[in-house]
């Protein structure tokens, strides 16, 4: 009683008689689509890049405070730990140009920053614009955790 079983099915006002069981679903699907073929399956990837807010007139102290906050509140624990520790250690020493570069780095997606900091370029290749970055090199050195300390969120 496999595929040759006759059935009577009612779908809306239409009645199908003597249709093999295995064909009902495709026939009903075609009927419900008014005879049109199914939407094709797209194997496409959608990426969106939201432009960062351009801040003007921000004092250097306000910028440092904002960067500390943005380093701590990334949304991914791994990035939070790396960046908050890095910010605590280095932000007070950075010049305005270095703060601008770090600000641009924080505009990148969290996982990209994490993989670049840990030099895992197989997962996320390093873009050319970051290859000569002094800030990223410093972050990569800090991410090595040569002191082997347990990473915790630093005190504010």
From TrEMBL:
Keywords: Chaperone, Mitochondrion
GO CC, one annotated term: mitochondrial matrix
Pfam families: Sdh5
Keyword presence, Chaperone: yes
Top-level lineage group: Eukaryota
Subcellular location, record wording: Mitochondrion matrix
Membership in a protein family: Belongs to the SDHAF2 family.
Complexes and interactors: Interacts with the flavoprotein subunit within the SDH catalytic dimer.
Its job: Plays an essential role in the assembly of succinate dehydrogenase (SDH), an enzyme complex (also referred to as respiratory complex II) that is a component of both the tricarboxylic acid (TCA) cycle and the mitochondrial electron transport chain, and which couples the oxidation of succinate to fumarate with the reduction of ubiquinone (coenzyme Q) to ubiquinol. Required for flavinylation (covalent attachment of FAD) of the flavoprotein subunit of the SDH catalytic dimer.
Protein name, UniProt field: Succinate dehydrogenase assembly factor 2, mitochondrial
Organism: Debaryomyces fabryi
């Amino acid at each position: 009683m496999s595929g040759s079983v006759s059935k009577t099915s009612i779908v809306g006002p239409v009645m199908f008689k003597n249709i093999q069981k295995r064909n009902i679903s495709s026939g009903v699907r075609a009927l419900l689509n008014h005879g049109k073929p199914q939407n094709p399956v797209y194997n496409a990837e959608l990426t969106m890049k939201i432009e960062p807010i351009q801040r003007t007139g921000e004092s250097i102290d306000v910028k440092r405070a904002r960067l500390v906050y943005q380093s701590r509140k990334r949304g991914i624990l791994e990035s939070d730990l790396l960046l908050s520790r890095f910010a605590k250690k280095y932000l007070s020493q950075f010049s305005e140009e270095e703060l601008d570069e770090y600000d641009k780095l924080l505009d990148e997606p969290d996982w990209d920053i994490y993989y670049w900091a840990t030099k895992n370029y197989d997962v996320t290749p390093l873009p050319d614009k970051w290859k000569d970055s002094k800030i990223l090199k410093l972050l990569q050195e800090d991410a090595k955790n040569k002191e082997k300390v347990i990473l915790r969120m630093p005190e504010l």
